[in-house]
Amino acid sequence: MSSARNLATLLVTVLCTACSVADLHSSRPLEFGGGMGDLCMPAGGSADYTYGFEGLRNPGGEAITIDHVSLVRAHGVRLEEAFVAPIANMTLIGARHTWPWPNATGTDAWTSKVPANGSLLRPADGDRNLVLHIVAPRAPAGFAAVRVDYSVGARRFTAKSTTTFHIEPKCEPMGRHRPPGSVGAAGRRLGLQGGS
Question: Which of 29, 70, 152, 191 has its CA 20 to 30 A from that of 123?
């Protein structure tokens, strides 16, 4: 892996750690998200990516069942698998050009992950990381949000993240915005230089 790609991966992780679980938001039973933003990852050598920018928390008194995880307005990308993993050291897994992320495979968080669909999130579980295996054969690709359909007893709910994710041949430098209408609803773009 090139040093530019390593730097890009590190910067994406650092930037999104800053918006990690402290920014979970919702007026519903599930607190879900990783902060507002428009993230860009340079395309890698693989079609498989790790996306783990979304935190989950159950602040209530009843267990939450995650019924279904999907991508909103996906283009050129598909969701292969979704998992719920513990959060280690208050850090979300972030995004990687591979699946699985090689440095995560031996960690307690990675080995403790469970398939998201059908999983239970209990109040005592603390903060969790929603980790997605996404496949994007070519750039540009991405999605507007991650959607989680969930239930508490017989009540059903939907939550959407506020982070838009793009895989581009080359990302814009940080602080530069895409033309109007091309930025996701979150409105802020964190771009990284680098690529394959």
Answer: 70
Please tell me whether the peptide bond between 115 and the residue prior to it is cis, using omega within 30 degrees of 0: no
Pairing of strands 141-143, 189-190: unpaired
The DSSP bridge partners found for residue 150 are 66, 157
CA dist list (Å): 140 to 33, 73, 77, 127:
24, 14, 9, 32
How, if at all, do strands 78-86 and 114-115 pair?
Answer: antiparallel
What letter would DSSP give residue 22?
Answer: G
Query: Residue 175: CB partners within 8 Å, gap ≥ 6?
Result: none
C-alpha dist (Å) from residue 97 to 55, 60, 107, 150: 20, 35, 18, 29
Query: What is the structure's pLDDT at 4?
Result: 45
For 44-64, how does the pLDDT look when each residue is reduced to its tens digit (9 = 90+)? Answer: 888 999 999 899 999 988 999
Q: How far apart are CA 54 and CA 139, in angstroms?
A: 22
DSSP state at residue 26: -
pTM above 0.85, yes or no: no
Bridge-based pairing state of the strands 163-168 and 37-42:
parallel
Q: Which CATH architecture has domain 3-190?
A: Sandwich (2.60)
